[in-house]
């Protein structure tokens, strides 16, 4: 057995069995994930042929140039970035707060867990429609704002403007994401040794002190995990935008993936869409590496 | 004196959590209450949060349940989700077990790929995957959805289960080998049963992923009879000139029921499966 705990199978029979266990996973990976990634790269450099010239033509970086000089791409990129920058910290902070509170409860823990998790298990299509209904110009929210608490004069056309549409999508993203963060942080909190808190109490530390000096440092790897997963999720936003605004007005609320989808399946520009997807993938890998590095450096700085 | 302070802070905690809980469920309750209103009253002004007592009706549900296509879509979704969960659990557990326990050529690269593919969002690969599905002649086929869903959920599932298996003492494996057991025996008798909470917890995620998946099914399925529920609901939404919110929400509530049942049955695995899984501390 090696120092990392893995061991080498000695007998042929066991080696064969390991191979058989690995085979289905590697097959699925190779065919349905790795091949499409390669194909994506290939498609981004070739223009697919039509009718008289069916062969794919090599176009080099032309599709990338088209993407990067497309104003709508930049609008969609800004929207996606804004969505991620707003929804990720908001979900994490609210989810962590809920987890800390629930973790401190003597009873009803399960009840709150289920309630907070409800939006997570409800499908994106459904919650998007519910939000679209609530934020409808003649909908419940406008009625509440203008007639009940009289905070606004008249109805706001939430879904008819770039910032209005994005606001609704972001509120939905936060609302739906809190439960996942709550469960992930709750799992981490329950792993923090109770002795740490007890000794801090003896030293006379208050709840706020304990949170910043014990809880936060102890759940650092979970925070990183949530941060990376949610950033990916933020860039993956698709269904809510598609259902709520469908990019309207005039593609002002597109996100990178809804715009990619539109270019591919409404305009048939597969090469453009492939280049766009690849740019998104590169940005995400870059962000993930950056997040890991930052957290690691902070560890070493301690 | 200290007793009183504790109770006060506890009350505050319950209050804050209840407020958050209210925000969580309010849109869901609104959906439910709208589904119980007469379909014609949906553009009422001023809008009412709850239908008035004399107005409560189940006509939207009757309409939905009388349509044969609802059952077809429902069964389609159930079939795809259950098969996705089963295949993903088997494949991911095998991968996770091998990566956690054995040295083999390409082990580090394989785990690196698992992590790397977690980073790339599924929808970003929709164009080449569409080409692949066309090439394999599995577009517009219900079962054609499954391999793609399985491939999407394998990285995260493998990552979580691997973390869990690493927490199982190796002495258990050793005891089985001593008794003359093979790799398969350890997998079946130790790894699978003891990583049950992790497998259960990722399976709930995977069921949900397949149950609610929208962009891919929208892209590859054309026939009404092969649609899954999310596509049917979204289609219902777009199909009429002005939206029949009552029908849409009745259908949404009906499609929520299986997920709710599964979640409530398995919710105790949820935190446990995450706890000792890939994320520690």
Automatic annotation (TrEMBL), chain A:
Its predominant location is membrane
Q: What is this protein called?
A: Lactose transport system permease protein LacF
In the bilayer, the protein is annotated as: Multi-pass membrane protein
Record keywords: Transmembrane helix included? yes
Q: Which Gene3D superfamilies match?
A: MetI-like
**Localisation:** Cell membrane
Q: Residue limits of the ABC transmembrane type-1 domain?
A: 77-291
- Source taxonomy: Bacteria, Bacillati, Bacillota, Clostridia, Eubacteriales
Taxonomy, superkingdom: Bacteria
Its BP terms in the Gene Ontology are: transmembrane transport
- Print the keywords alphabetically: Cell membrane, Membrane, Transmembrane, Transmembrane helix, Transport
One GO term of the cellular component aspect?
Answer: plasma membrane
What are the transmembrane regions? 18-38, 81-102, 114-135, 168-189, 270-290
PANTHER family xref list: ABC TRANSPORTER PERMEASE PROTEIN, INNER MEMBRANE ABC TRANSPORTER PERMEASE PROTEIN YCJO
Automatic annotation (TrEMBL), chain B:
Keywords, in A-Z order: Cell membrane, Membrane, Transmembrane, Transmembrane helix, Transport
Q: Please cite one Gene Ontology biological process associated with this protein.
A: transmembrane transport
SUPFAM superfamilies documented for this protein:
MetI-like
Q: Which residues cross the membrane?
A: 12-32, 70-98, 110-130, 142-165, 186-208, 245-266
Boundaries of each ABC transmembrane type-1 domain copy?
74-266
Tell where it localizes.
Cell membrane
Q: What is its main location?
A: membrane
Q: What Gene3D superfamilies is this protein classified in?
A: MetI-like
Look up keyword Disulfide bond and say if it applies: no
What membrane topology is annotated for this entry? Multi-pass membrane protein
State one Pfam family annotation.
BPD_transp_1
Q: What domain of life? A: Bacteria
A single Gene Ontology CC annotation of this entry is:
plasma membrane
Q: Does the keyword DNA damage apply?
A: no
Task: State the similarity comment.
Answer: Belongs to the binding-protein-dependent transport system permease family.
* The protein's name: Trehalose transport system permease protein SugB
GN (gene name): sugB_2
């Amino acid at each position: 057995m090696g120092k990392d705990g893995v061991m080498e199978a000695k007998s042929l029979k066991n080696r064969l069995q390991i191979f058989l266990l690995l085979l289905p996973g590697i097959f699925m990976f190779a065919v349905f994930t790795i091949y499409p990634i390669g194909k994506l790269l290939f498609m981004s450099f070739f223009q697919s042929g039509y009718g008289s010239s069916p062969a794919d033509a090599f176009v080099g970086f032309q599709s990338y140039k088209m993407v990067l000089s497309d104003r709508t791409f930049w609008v969609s990129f800004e929207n996606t970035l804004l969505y991620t920058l707003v929804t990720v910290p908001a979900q994490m902070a609210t989810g962590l707060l809920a987890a800390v509170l629930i973790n401190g409860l003597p009873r009803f823990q399960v009840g709150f867990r289920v309630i907070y998790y409800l939006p997570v298990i409800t499908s994106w299509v459904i919650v998007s429609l519910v939000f679209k209904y609530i934020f409808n110009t003649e909908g419940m929210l406008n009625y509440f704002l203008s007639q009940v608490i009289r905070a606004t004069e008249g109805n706001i056309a939430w879904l008819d403007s770039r910032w209005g549409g994005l606001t609704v999508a972001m509120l939905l993203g936060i609302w739906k994401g809190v439960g996942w963060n709550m469960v992930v942080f709750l799992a981490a909190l329950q792993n923090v040794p109770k002795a740490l808190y007890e000794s801090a109490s003896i030293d006379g530390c208050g709840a706020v002190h304990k949170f910043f000096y014990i809880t936060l440092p102890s759940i650092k790897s979970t925070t990183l995990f949530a941060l990376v997963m949610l950033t990916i999720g933020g860039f993956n936003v698709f269904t809510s935008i598609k259902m709520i605004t469908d990019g309207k007005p005039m593609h002002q609320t597109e996100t990178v993936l809804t715009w990619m989808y539109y270019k591919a399946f409404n305009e048939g520009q597969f090469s453009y869409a492939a280049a766009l997807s690849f740019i998104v993938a590169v940005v995400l890998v870059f962000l993930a590496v950056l997040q890991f590095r930052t957290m690691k450096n902070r560890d070493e700085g301690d | 004196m200290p007793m009183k302070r504790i109770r006060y802070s506890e009350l505050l905690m319950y209050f804050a959590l209840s407020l958050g809980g209210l925000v969580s469920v309010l849109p869901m309750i609104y959906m439910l209450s709208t589904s119980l209103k007469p379909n014609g009253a949906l553009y009422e002004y001023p809008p009412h949060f709850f239908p008035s007592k004399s107005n409560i009706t189940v006509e939207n549900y009757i309409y939905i349940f009388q349509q044969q296509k609802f059952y077809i879509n429902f069964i389609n979704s159930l079939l795809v989700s259950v098969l996705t969960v089963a295949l993903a659990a088997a494949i991911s557990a095998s991968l996770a077990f091998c990566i956690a326990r054995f040295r083999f050529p390409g082990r580090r690269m394989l785990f690196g790929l698992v992590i790397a593919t977690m980073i790339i969002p599924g929808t970003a690969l929709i164009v080449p995957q569409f080409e692949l599905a066309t090439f394999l002649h599995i577009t517009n086929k219900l079962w054609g959805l499954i391999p793609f869903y399985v491939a999407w959920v394998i990285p995260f599932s493998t990552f979580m289960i691997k973390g869990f298996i690493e927490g199982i003492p190796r002495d258990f494996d050793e005891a089985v080998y001593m008794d003359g057991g093979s790799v398969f025996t350890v997998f079946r008798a130790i790894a699978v049963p003891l990583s049950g909470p992790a497998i259960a917890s990722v399976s709930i995620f995977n069921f949900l992923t397949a149950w609610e998946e929208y962009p891919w099914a929208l892209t590859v399925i054309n026939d009404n009879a092969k649609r899954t529920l999310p596509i049917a609901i979204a289609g219902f939404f777009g199909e009429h000139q002005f939206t029949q919110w009552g029908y849409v929400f009745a259908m949404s509530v009906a499609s929520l029921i299986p997920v709710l049942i599964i979640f409530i049955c398995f919710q105790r695995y949820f935190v446990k499966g995450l706890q000792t899984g890939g994320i520690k501390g």
